[in-house]
Amino acid sequence: YIEPSEGYSLQLNGKALGTGLTIEPDELRYRHDPEAAAAAPEAYERLINNVLEGDQTNFTHWSELSASWHFIDAIQAAWSQEPNMPTYPAATMGPQAAFDLLSRDGREWFWQPHRVQMAD
């Protein structure tokens, strides 16, 4: 739940009391005490206080942000390259590269129908 009555709930399914095997829903609910909620800081009050006190716990340092982007940039660079993936038409056994991959080790596909169109 969100303001003004903050809290949370969890819905579970459990066996009903008795000897039967009936399942029934049960909800666990928790709501903050209104008096405790009134004494708690507002949404950004704690963050502003952290800034004034010099507490950087809830803030990202530039070095962390830079390292994160370095990681993401490497992923984006890999995605932007054109992959050398063989393509093949639908309803075929796949590209010749799939057969070549197995034949390098002296293996072959187990299922080989006699009238299968091979893709180039």
Automatic annotation (TrEMBL):
Keywords: Carbohydrate metabolism, NADP, Oxidoreductase. Pathway: Carbohydrate degradation. GO terms for cellular component: cytosol. One of its GO terms (molecular function) is glucose-6-phosphate dehydrogenase activity. It comes from the Bacteria. SUPFAM superfamilies: Glyceraldehyde-3-phosphate dehydrogenase-like, C-terminal domain. Pfam families: G6PD_C. This is Glucose-6-phosphate dehydrogenase. Residues 2-109 form the Glucose-6-phosphate dehydrogenase C-terminal domain. It comes from Lacticaseibacillus zeae (Lactobacillus zeae).
